[in-house]
């Protein structure tokens, strides 16, 4: 995967997102462009399923960057988010040293060799010219004290490890933070980010999103491809079920609305994940 330069205009950003089948309005594309131009984290807030996480995935795929994802949850701490020491290997190294030299190696065991790198540290140590996309997903699920730890990372793109010192990113990662707003995120975090509220798509955008998904299904080898009537019925069915994000499960449950032959339904079910992945990458 070869990294490419970020877009140099808002229009180019719109095209970049569109190339990965992400239908974005100009305001969202502007926020993404400014995030890339200013090297500032982008804080995306909105209801679940409106496409916040997908922004990070699209940026990683279209810019040829590694996607590093930190999924937040209650009880998340430094050991899972940033780093921890491999205590078992450290103890083995100490015992080995005592047997061979009788000496002490307390300093040596606090080295990169014994460090387990978690998402935040991995993101800071990305290569120049190919800094990864760091997705801090659903920050509102983490405990509030975890936000204080994030401040150093978001402010200076650095992380302090007491035994090693401060590790600073050669090139800042592209940071996308999402929140479903189950609780308020502290202002100190938001001040360090560009902010955008991701709302539900309007009718035109929603129609375009559905159209692209159905087009991908129509590329499959089927006995009877879905027509316009079936597409409209399928859209109505998804709306009736309050589906706000297409997934393998909800598509599988509603295939009888879109397709009318069991062989076609069975064939598509066996390739469901591939179809979803390809529809996002085209």
Structure overview:
With 282 residues, the chain is α/β, with parallel strands linked by helices. It folds into 3 domains: 10-79 and 118-197, 3-Layer(aba) Sandwich (Rossmann fold), CATH 3.40.50.300; 83-112; 203-281. 48% of the residues lie in helices and 13% in strands. The chain is built from 14 helices and 9 strands. The strands form 3 sheets. Strands 2-5-8-1-9 form a 5-stranded parallel sheet.
Provide tags for this entry.
five-stranded parallel sheet, 282 residues, alpha/beta, two-stranded antiparallel sheet, 9 strands, Rossmann fold, single chain, 3 domains
Protein topology:
Blueprint: H1 10-19, H2 26-38, E1 42-45, H3 52-63, E2 67-71, H4 78-81, E3 83-85, H5 87-100, E4 115-117, H6 119-124, E5 133-137, H7 144-156, E6 158-161, E7 165-168, E8 174-179, H8 187-191, E9 194-197, H9 203-218, H10 228-240, H11 248-253, H12 255-258, H13 262-270, H14 272-281
Parallel strand pairs: 1-8, 1-9, 2-5, 5-8
Antiparallel strand pairs: 3-4, 6-7
Q: Quickly name the level 1 CATH class of the largest domain.
A: Alpha Beta
Total strand count, please? 9
The chain-level structural class is alpha/beta
CATH homologous superfamily of the largest domain, by name? Answer: P-loop containing nucleotide triphosphate hydrolases
From N to C, what is the helix and strand string? HHEHEHEHEHEHEEEHEHHHHHH
Number of helical stretches of at least 4 residues: 14
The CATH architecture of the largest domain can be given as 3-Layer(aba) Sandwich
User: Which parts are unreliable, with pLDDT below 50 for 5 consecutive residues or more?
Assistant: none
């Amino acid at each position: 995967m070869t990294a490419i330069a970020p877009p140099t205009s808002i229009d180019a950003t719109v095209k970049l997102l569109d190339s990965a089948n992400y239908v974005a309005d100009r305001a969202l594309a502007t926020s993404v462009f400014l995030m890339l131009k200013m090297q500032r984290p982008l804080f995306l807030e909105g209801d679940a399923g409106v496409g916040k996480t997908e922004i990070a995935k699209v940026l990683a795929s279209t810019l040829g960057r590694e996607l590093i994802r930190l999924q937040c949850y209650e009880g998340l701490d430094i050991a899972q988010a940033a780093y921890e020491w491999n205590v078992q290997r450290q103890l083995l190294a100490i015992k080995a040293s005592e047997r061979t030299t009788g000496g002490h190696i307390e300093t040596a065991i606090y080295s990169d060799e014994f460090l387990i790198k978690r998402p935040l540290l991995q993101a800071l140590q990305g290569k120049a010219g190919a800094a990864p996309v760091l997705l801090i997903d659903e920050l509102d699920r983490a405990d509030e004290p975890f936000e204080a730890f994030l401040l150093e990372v978001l402010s200076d793109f650095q992380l302090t490890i007491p035994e090693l010192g401060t590790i600073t990113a050669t090139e800042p990662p592209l940071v996308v933070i999402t929140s479903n707003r189950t609780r308020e995120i502290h202002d100190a975090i938001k001040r360090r980010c560009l902010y955008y509220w991701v709302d539900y798509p309007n009718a035109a955008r929603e129609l375009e999103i559905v159209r692209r998904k159905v087009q991908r299904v129509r590329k499959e080898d089927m006995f009877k491809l879905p027509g316009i009537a079936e597409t409209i019925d399928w859209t109505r069915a998804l709306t009736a079920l309050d589906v706000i994000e297409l997934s393998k499960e909800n598509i599988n449950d509603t295939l009888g609305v879109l397709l009318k032959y069991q062989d076609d339904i069975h064939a598509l079910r066996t390739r469901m994940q591939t179809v979803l992945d390809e529809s996002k990458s085209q």
